[in-house]
Amino acid sequence: MKSLKVTNIGEIxxxxxxxxxxxxxxxxxxxxxxRLAWLGRVVMQPLDPEDPECKSFLIFIQEPDELPAHFLDTxxxxxxxxxxxDGEQAEALIQVLxxxxxxxxxxxxDLSRSDFYFRYFxxxxxxxxxxxxTTGPQGGAED
Length: 143
Prior knowledge:
3 strands
């Protein structure tokens, strides 16, 4: 923990301005955070909504679920922590977060309209079965 002398007002202002500007993630970290933002695992809030000059955001990065965690290479230093991110990267993360929500919503919408029964069990007699319908859940041919 860094301590500041209360007697030096200029030093306190410099520290405050440094926090207000936020920190930039390096490329590797930004890509990890962006992937988690796409998955909806990032919570963001403006650092100081009442200050129009403060563009940085306070973000909390949640651990991914087990399946995504298996595929994503995430730094444990980033997970479960709050970070102050500069405005430029925060705006990009907001766009990634928004596109992830929109794409997942479309996927769920399409899923809710899917008719699996007709895809696997109904077809005209002269039409062959689709390739995915010819194997059972264990990968063997159906009887």
